[in-house]
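FAQ

Q: What does a record look like?
A: Structure on top, sequence underneath. For example:
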């Protein structure tokens, strides 16, 4: 349960107040998943918000059989297909463990219960999601691949250390070959 409090850190993209996190504890249960285990399939309704205690989860969608990574979630992050969760409609993406992962799970039923007891939870959750989406959109709108990669390394260094480069490339909206060229250019600049 210690990583639950990392969600409150200023560095974290999912920033909920300590008081809200404490109130959540009785509503959560532990789920352990294996590497490549699917938490959510496209077309299913997302019934959970996952608080990552250890491990990593990716959110992605498929188009013409190709995987496009929307987000990575590590220790202290909240993972969910939030649109599907809030509207209780079919998800347009998948959630899958990248490595063996321990999660604290908040079900939709318990989410409704805690929102009734603590209405500020819903407000804070919406603020967190807004920040996440804004950061992600801003990263993708940077026209230059080098700028996107530098910003990515600055803001999310753990991703490049824990996931394969082809996933990083997908997350940054570029081909693995383009990312390889960018990395090579950066290493040449550092050496000079």
């Amino acid at each position: 349960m210690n990583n639950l409090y990392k969600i409150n850190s200023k560095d974290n993209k999912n920033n909920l107040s300590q008081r809200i996190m404490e109130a959540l504890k009785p509503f959560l249960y532990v789920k352990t998943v294996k590497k490549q285990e699917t938490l959510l399939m496209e077309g299913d309704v997302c019934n959970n918000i996952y608080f990552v205690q250890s491990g990593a989860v990716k959110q992605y969608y498929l188009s013409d059989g190709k995987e496009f990574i929307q987000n990575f979630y590590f220790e202290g992050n909240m993972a969910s297909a939030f649109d599907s969760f809030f509207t209780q409609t079919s998800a347009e993406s998948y959630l899958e463990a990248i490595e063996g992962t321990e999660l604290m799970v908040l079900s939709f039923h318990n989410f409704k219960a805690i929102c009734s007891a603590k209405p500020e939870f819903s407000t804070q959750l919406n603020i967190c999601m807004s920040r996440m989406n804004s950061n992600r959109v801003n990263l993708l709108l940077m026209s230059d691949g080098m700028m996107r990669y530098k910003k990515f390394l600055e803001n999310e260094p753990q991703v490049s250390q824990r996931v394969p480069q082809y996933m990083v490339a997908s997350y940054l909206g570029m081909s693995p070959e383009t990312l390889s060229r960018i990395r090579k250019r950066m290493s040449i600049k550092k050496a000079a």
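Q: Is there anything notable about this one?
A: Residues 1-14 have pLDDT under 50 and may be disordered.
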